[in-house]
Amino acid sequence: MTVDDLLAREAIRHVMAKYTTSGDRLRVEDFVSCFTEDAVMESEHVPEDRAFRYEGRAQIRAWQERWLAGEGDTHGATFVRHHLSTSRIDLTATDSAEARTYWVAWTNIGPDHAGYYLDRFRKVEGEWLLAHRRVRMDWEAPNSLFRSAISNSQDAAS
Question: Which domain of life is it from (predicted)?
């Protein structure tokens, strides 16, 4: 492993942390800046009514703006904190990487839902960004405050 490899991995970890803290705090511009212009963010292994797929920064931004506006009574939590744990980052080229990262979201009820991210990163103009994020949910509490969050934040025009 080279110093450049270590720096790349640390830059990718920084993007993961920025995504998580920006999303939890509804800092839309910071959240969107984690993605390439042509990024894809989609769910995996969730019921159809909670599936989502957003292509490009504009769709990702619009989704986050709906959350910020509280459209559709998004969820019943007064706070959400995503905690990242084990993360394996594999550099696939000098400008690309893949990662698998486990997460759990805490809300007013404690552990609310959990899963892992399957990511592809791309280095664009010297900056590592998410090119494709698949959000896999493995578990949710029976009284999860986020059970209807995704369906409630969908674009009504979709």
Answer: Bacteria
